[in-house]
Design goal:
Strand content: 15-25%
Strand order of the largest sheet: 3-4-6-7
CATH superfamily: Uncharacterised protein PF11572, DUF3234
Radius of gyration: 16 Å
CATH architecture: 3-Layer(aba) Sandwich
Number of strands: 7
Distance between the termini: 14 Å
Low-confidence stretches: none
Number of helices: 7
CATH class: Alpha Beta
Order of helices and strands: HEEEEHEHEEHHHH
Length: 156
Amino acid sequence: MELLKNFISEVRENDTLWLLEAKPGLFAMVEDAEENSYIPVWSKESDALSNISEDWEEYSVTSMNIEEFVGWMRELDEDQIGIAISSGAEGQMFPMPALAMKQIFRGAEIDFEEDKKLVGEDYYDEEWAEGIPDNWEEDYLDSLDDEDEEYGEAEE
């Protein structure tokens, strides 16, 4: 939970996040036990650098500004690829759906009418465009706790 809060704060402050890239457009990915795919991201360049080893030794660190990152979330969501918020070298990751990442960084800043014009009335998806509520952290993190309990993985 602290990892998520720190990530959001640091990325918003710097308007940048960091990824590992093999070649332009080909980013490092991880899978969970259920074979769900995630792209790991870091809030600090040094943390991303500390993860270049083994499978990712040929990768380099690249930055992405928030606007570009948020614009990419629809495509990742359609491809069922999530985001893994990563810590330093410890390998700790917090998986999130791409839609949730878009909402976190766009939230109330969304201009719904402008989005509608850009996408077109026929293709506009209100659920996708909805901003994230003020209490998103509690609701989202509570839902994760509920899932953990459902699968017998609740942390004590």
